[in-house]
Automatic annotation (TrEMBL):
<keyword id="KW-0663">Pyridoxal phosphate</keyword>
<dbReference type="InterPro" id="IPR015421">
    <property type="entry name" value="PyrdxlP-dep_Trfase_major"/>
</dbReference>
<keyword id="KW-0032">Aminotransferase</keyword>
<comment type="similarity">
    <text>Belongs to the class-I pyridoxal-phosphate-dependent aminotransferase family.</text>
</comment>
<dbReference type="InterPro" id="IPR015424">
    <property type="entry name" value="PyrdxlP-dep_Trfase"/>
</dbReference>
<keyword id="KW-0808">Transferase</keyword>
<dbReference type="InterPro" id="IPR050596">
    <property type="entry name" value="AspAT/PAT-like"/>
</dbReference>
<dbReference type="InterPro" id="IPR004838">
    <property type="entry name" value="NHTrfase_class1_PyrdxlP-BS"/>
</dbReference>
<dbReference type="Pfam" id="PF00155">
    <property type="entry name" value="Aminotran_1_2"/>
</dbReference>
<feature type="compositionally biased region" description="Low complexity">
    <location>
        <begin position="105"/>
        <end position="115"/>
    </location>
</feature>
<protein>
    <recommendedName>
        <fullName>Aminotransferase</fullName>
        <ecNumber>2.6.1.-</ecNumber>
    </recommendedName>
</protein>
<dbReference type="Pfam" id="PF04672">
    <property type="entry name" value="Methyltransf_19"/>
</dbReference>
<dbReference type="InterPro" id="IPR029063">
    <property type="entry name" value="SAM-dependent_MTases_sf"/>
</dbReference>
<feature type="region of interest" description="Disordered">
    <location>
        <begin position="95"/>
        <end position="131"/>
    </location>
</feature>
<feature type="domain" description="Aminotransferase class I/classII large">
    <location>
        <begin position="187"/>
        <end position="532"/>
    </location>
</feature>
<dbReference type="InterPro" id="IPR004839">
    <property type="entry name" value="Aminotransferase_I/II_large"/>
</dbReference>
<dbReference type="InterPro" id="IPR006764">
    <property type="entry name" value="SAM_dep_MeTrfase_SAV2177_type"/>
</dbReference>
């Protein structure tokens, strides 16, 4: 018997039948069609195959793939007619289907004539949590028929907009599971979240206290308070020798808010925007939600997981390019000369460069450069979250070309009115010499953690690791152990209490063979995690 899915949102699931295991000599398509034909006219069916993660039988895999191709369509809300014309088959988007150890049942839908149920949205709050099933034996498959009814079954309102159908951020699911285990057992080592554990520097905390007592914390100017914009402009002079006009600095509600503003101001619906794979998933998801066509290109060790002009030449006509240096998840840095080459490539072709520089300040052996050192037509994103260790303060900034100032001004006024007032007043102190001295100590800590982690991973046989030039991540090839990093990370957490991030967050194609580890926390956590992982891998 397969496991039954339980959704977080109110929903009733009633089992109405189970397809028996499919023996080697049976035709799964014929068996499947027999059961589907028996459903009432107008039924909706959700098909998801599942199988033993250790099963590498090509014939069995082909059977499962055949089910998917024969009976599934691209999205929940785009049914395709069954052969008899009065039954419909749906599946979740391909990017969400991974080869999980958990069962994925066949769900048979509503009675004839009933309104179509609204599928649960694909976000981290409403993802299915599977009850641990009894796995099918080797070269055998099982499907479960379930009757699904929801509170919205009789609602006259349509389902969630298609533009909102973006993949979840799996690291948040891992973090939630890790926190649940921590509350129960207290043994979790957190190497999943990409945030410093030290907290904001002392001058920032003092400035926040002063602002709470004496500052006006009402609405600020839409683009940020003048003292903060001036302080950020001064930072570019000190760090890069760049003369930046404070009027070109736009303070944003986190760098995430900055990316949203940048994409809306720079691109039209249907524009082709390129990004490297692996890469930060929010780029892809935001661009898709805004109606852009995301053009992903594969990278590997040969290019240090970064774009090159040769790769870009093969992409056809694009309107934008997102470059991250240092990168999340790999930590690789585009060398100053290489960034200048990429910026010039974009400028010569009228391609808008979005330069993600939010991890600047956290670099080790390689120097970093700012895209504005080559062209003022780029959009440069910065953040107070990473180097400045102010993740929850939700504050970032953007250097914007003059031609986009008015658009960004109007958009931010409509979206947020202004960035958080308290955070803005406190962040002025983050750019002081006293804060930078404290924060540089954080970078020394990250460097020591990096070296400890790299040595430990190599000792336990994980030797293929992206070059960690900056940030605080290790992107590790685990293809010798799995091609389903999501299930692998969950089993690692269940068995050892070590929480790391699956690579599918960053690369929906090859990410099943990679994981990301964050080393921004305590040094003792690094040692404990490596020791537990080594024991687990040996066993």
């Amino acid at each position: 018997m397969a496991g039954v899915l339980e959704w977080d949102r109110p929903m009733a699931l009633q089992q109405v039948g189970t397809l028996p295991h499919v023996a080697d000599d049976r035709d799964p398509a014929t068996l499947m069609r027999t059961y589907v034909d028996a459903l009432p006219p107008g039924s909706y069916v959700v098909l998801s195959h599942f199988f033993n993660p250790g099963d590498e039988d090509p014939e069995a895999a082909a059977v499962a793939t055949g089910w998917s191709r024969r009976f599934c369509t691209a999205r929940w809300h785009r049914p395709i007619p069954h052969a008899r014309g009065d039954r419909h088959l749906l599946r979740r988007p391909r990017t969400h289907r991974t080869r999980l150890r958990d069962a994925r049942p066949l769900v048979a839908g509503r009675p004839a004539g009933a309104p179509r149920p609204r599928p649960p949205p694909h976000d981290r709050r409403h993802r299915p949590q599977a009850v641990t099933p009894t796995l099918a034996p080797r070269r055998a498959r099982a499907l479960t028929l379930l009757d699904m009814t929801t509170e919205s079954a009789t609602s006259p309102f349509p389902p969630a907009a298609q533009r909102a159908d973006v993949p979840p951020f799996y690291v948040m699911d891992v973090l939630s599971a890790a926190k649940a285990r921590q509350a129960e057992r207290g043994d979790v080592v957190f190497l999943c979240a990409g945030q410093p554990t030290a907290g904001a520097p002392e001058p920032v905390l003092a400035a926040a206290q002063q602002a709470l007592r004496g500052s006006d914390l009402g609405y600020t100017p839409q683009l940020g308070i003048p003292p903060l914009r001036e302080a950020i402009a001064g930072h570019y002079d000190r760090a890069y020798g760049l003369d930046v006009d404070p009027a070109d600095v736009i303070v944003t509600t986190g760098s995430s808010g900055g990316f949203l503003l940048a994409f809306l101001a720079a691109f039209e619906v249907g524009d082709r925007v390129a990004m490297a794979r692996p890469g930060y998933p929010a780029y892809r998801n935001l661009l898709n939600a805004l109606g852009c066509e995301v053009v992903e290109f594969a990278t590997d060790e040969s290019t240090r997981f970064q774009p090159t002009p040769e790769i870009l030449d093969g992409l056809g006509d694009i309107k934008g390019l997102v470059v991250a240096s240092p990168s999340n998840p790999t930590g690789t840095i585009v060398a100053p000369g290489e960034l200048a080459t990429l910026t010039e490539w974009c400028t010569a072709r009228g391609v808008r460069l979005i330069s993600d520089e939010i991890y600047h300040g956290i670099s080790y052996e390689r120097d970093v450069a700012c895209a504005w050192q080559t062209s003022r037509e780029a959009l440069v994103l910065g953040s107070f979250s990473k180097y400045f260790a102010m993740t929850g303060w939700r504050l970032g900034w953007m250097l914007a070309p003059q031609a986009l100032h008015r658009s960004v001004d109007v958009l931010t006024g409509n979206f947020n009115i202004c960035p958080p007032a308290l955070s803005q007043h406190a962040a002025v102190a983050a750019l002081s010499p006293e804060s930078c001295a404290e924060l540089d100590g954080h970078v020394d800590h990250y460097r020591a953690n990096r070296d400890l982690l790299l040595d430990g991973l190599r000792d336990i046989g994980l030797t293929r690791i992206a070059p960690i030039d900056g940030a605080f991540y290790a992107y590790v090839d685990v293809s010798e152990h799995t091609d389903d990093s999501l299930s692998w990370c969950r089993k690692l957490l269940d068995d050892t209490g070590v929480a790391i991030t699956p690579g599918v967050d960053f690369d929906p194609v090859a990410g099943g063979s990679f994981v990301r580890l964050s080393f921004a926390g305590a040094r003792s956590d690094i040692a404990t995690a490596v020791e537990r992982m080594g024991t687990w891998l040996r066993n």
